Amino acid sequence: MTDTASRHLVLVGLMGAGKTTVGERCAATLRRPFVDTDDLVEARTGRTVAELFGEGEPTFRAAERDAVTDACASPAPLVIACGGGAVLDPDSRRRLRSAGFVVWLRAAPRVLAARVQADPVERPLLAREGRLATLTRLAETRAPAYEAAADVTVTTEGRNPDEVAAAVLEELDRCAA
Ligand code: S3P
Predict the structure, then answer these.
(1) The pLDDT of residue 1 is above 70
(2) 15 lines ligand 1 (CB under 6 A)
């Protein structure tokens, strides 16, 4: 049994997994504030994710680490959607795990590639090589980090955002029981 009521609900996973859309829906149902770490990075630095990446990925990752630290420190339980690479940092991973109930939203790279194609959000990592090739590579290299960060896994394939949100909240309830 986990004390899920006082912990943040944290969504992790690759770009296109639906963390923001699903997170907003979970937050509405739980009546909790919603925080997206990319938005927090932009609010804290006054720069866009693309601008920070323009200075080199380490600049963005440092800002992302600070955003995760801030979000985790909130005394009120939040729903936190993490940028896809946030869990690569071991300190962020530890922080998210100790302050939150962490759900890994999964889908096959070809499903993620189709979703990000239809999404207007600018994602610098996907501008470098083909979307599918990048997502396939990241799915392989990042799987251990998602695995290490997550309390549970929820598949998003063949489910709409409301169905995924319901599945996430079911997991939260199940772990609280
Ligand atoms: C990134 C994912 C993006 C954003 C940045 C880098 C990544 O967030 O943080 O472009 O490394 O996977 P989303 O996962 O919300 O698209």
Answers:
(1) no
(2) yes
- Which residues constitute the domain of residue 154? 8-176
Residue 141 lies in a domain: yes
Helix axes 90-99, 131-149, angle to 10 degrees: 60
C-alpha distance across the termini of the chain, in Å: 6
pLDDT for res 37: 98
Asked if residue 3 belongs to a domain, the reply is: no
Section 75-86 average pLDDT:
98
Query: For residue 87, what are its two tokens?
Result: 């869990």
42 CB within 6 A, ligand 1: no
How do beta strands 100-106 and 34-36 pair?
unpaired
CATH of residue 132's domain is: 3.40.50.300
Judge whether residue 95 has pLDDT over 70: yes
Given the CA of residue 123, which atom of ligand 1 is nearest to it? 10
Decide if pLDDT at 129 tops 60: yes
Number of folded domains that form the chain:
1
On the question of pLDDT at 169 being above 70, the answer is yes
**Ligand 1 pocket residue status of 124, Cβ below 6 Å:** yes
